[in-house]
Amino acid sequence: MSEPKGLPPSLLDLSQYSDDGLKVLVVEDNDSDFELMCYRLKQGGLKYTATRVDRIEDLRRCLEHEEWQVVISDHNLPGFGSEEALRIVRDSGLDIPFIIVSGSIGEHVAVEAMRAGADDYLMKDKMARLVPAIERSLRAANERRSLATAEQAQRESERRFAAIAENIPGIIFQMHSGPSLPRPTVPFVSEGVIRLFGVPPRLFLENPNYFFEQFAADDAASLFEMLLEPPQAGAHLTWEGRLKPHGKYSERWVLMNAVAKARGNMFVWDGVLLDISDRKEAENHLLNAQTELRRVTTEFEKRREQERGAIAREIHDDMGGSLTKLKADVAWLNKNLSLDTPAAEKLDDMLELIEHLLASSQRIAKDLRPGILDYGLIPALDWQMKDFQKRTQIQGEFQSNVEELQLDPELSTALFRILQEALTNIVKHAQATRVDVELFVTENELSLEVRDNGRGIENADKLKDTSFGLRGMQERVAAFDGWVDVSGSTGSGTTVMVSIPRGNQTDEAEND
To answer: Which keywords does this chain's UniProt record carry (predicted)?
Structure first.
């Protein structure tokens, strides 16, 4: 039997239910009592659809095939009662409000029914309470569902958190610090401490100092000192330190990342402590490889400059001397022999060729190793700049804040080659009309700056695989623990800055 619509609007929000309103399943064997219930539902302003059953199998079938918002059951029915009906509803796994209606039910029975899961009970002579009882039961059911959903979400969140904590190469922790605490405490650590420290989490909770005792003494002190400083809310803490040796590990490194939030007069740090031992080992291998590569590169450059110097001396002394003698002999023949015109012209051609060979040998020897370096770096750089202007017609100037500077020969050669490479790049790419070079020497640092007014270098040009000139500068400077910076922008020229510390150099400078 169905009753379609109620009269005055109920206080219950029925928008969450079907268009037909609240679906009510009534377990009742008496038609008159069922009609009375429907009348009370109408009178209470509920929009509803009601279905009556009076047999257990019909109750089970309705629960299985349809969705209900409330079950109202008579206490005494032929063959079964409200206790059996309640058990069937609860065994179905459905969280449906269950209200018992009876003409005569003892208080003890009613209490037992409520303990068994009934939401409410009322006497048939007080059916005016039916709608309020339904509304109250529905609200309670909604609250139970919301709580169950929240608990399920909480369990899922905890499951995800546990999975993340289990799989990160370290631990998740919470730390408290602040003026109200004698020292920072760690009220929570994840199970990862078993892998990282080899001990269970409870030891960290039982002993506030245990967390800091796991670090090397110096590193623990630095972390403790950082935590003494009151942070700003939302401040980030990043710290690297070493753990005490554990198991097969002689040295292990960890990285701490944490975020602070204020809580009363203390700060709560939520963070992770990651095992970065493998990364540190890889960094050390890379650093050692770079150091070895730098040593090999430096040695290679040193040997190459030595070979260049030897070849330059051979060209200058042997070939240059022989060509000079040959030139003198040809000039003597041309002067002392009475030759016809063709023979004289031939000697003139020979003299011209010898002079060309002499000039070429001098140029090659100079390119291999300019002899001007023997007079010091400052005269060599000044000569190089003047020679550049003469060859390219590009205006420029060399300046230095010292008049004399005695450097290690390898460093002098490296700076000379760096300027040589910078000037070569200007000729090739800059389209400049002016170049200024400045050498600035202080007690702790030596700087060489090359500026042009050309088209400017773009970042993409610096990153090209074919930027061998810049790479060569970097390798030369790295051998002396220095650095190179190349900056510029379109239309504003390019600046090459070289800086080398003087701490490891045995040099002397006299200021102007």
So the answer is: Kinase, Phosphoprotein, Transferase, Two-component regulatory system
